């Protein structure tokens, strides 16, 4: 694992140069409200490339080549008899797709509601979204945006520890450091986060459970809880055996067409066990639950628990308001509170960030609870609007 960035684990990242280039590109040209590739131009350009076999429109791609968050929509479209194809360039899939509806070719990124060419707000720009949510009196963690260490440290004196530091634009918990207990830890955290990109967010660390809400068409809400990789003892099996049993029901760590992934047995896990004064041969007492990794990411083996039916109506109204305020047809919302079954305004809670291309397959393939028919709802929404 030493060849890869340990702060991006379990992603295999060797360089962050592209993130720094993106930062300066956005700073010079502006990004927050911009237009993506123009759909008409993009479509014509792809058709030209297809004629010389640089690009292919593949109507029956191998499932293993597509991320499950995209695959569920592709399969649902095929089930309905829609003319849909995955776009392959230079022999590789790039998570873009094409479907034809009413004789019109429509191109999209990953999820059919993310149409190429539509004006779009940058949902991944954490500070800009935070400002919009604050302006609309929606709950967010107190924090600020910085590129300079001294200014960040000065601002931290206005906050209450523990704190958390994260890149202003990033995903999969890359270089997210927290909880931070003091200024010395904060200085080190800022150093780590700026390896990823120059700009970062400092905010108060909210204690609670992590939930993902996805809003579709400003009227459909799906919610799940993310629980870091864990096992529960039975008083007989070793930790290695418990992990093996859980992994037998999941896809491989780097398997695209699977939502739930194996818990990786690596040096990170072994270090965690050592911290707990355990090892792979240890036998956990019955009902004893331990966490094996800290990150709430799928390829680290986290659990996904369906919470749509148990979520309090006031929280559902909150998530719907976020989509309405941001004026988007699809948004993933990371939300922290102690109990999703209680109203958000009756407990400490915060919207942590939003996502433009959320892993919606989490709702359709949870590890626990009733699956939500996300792909069906998305296509129903698209076809009803035509």
From TrEMBL:
Keywords linked to the UniProt accession: ATP-binding, Nucleotide-binding
A GO molecular-function annotation: metal ion binding
Taxonomy, superkingdom: Bacteria
PROSITE patterns (UniProt xref): ATP_GRASP
Domain annotation ATP-grasp: ranges: 130-383
InterPro entries: ATP-grasp
UniProt-recorded name of the protein: ATP-grasp domain-containing protein
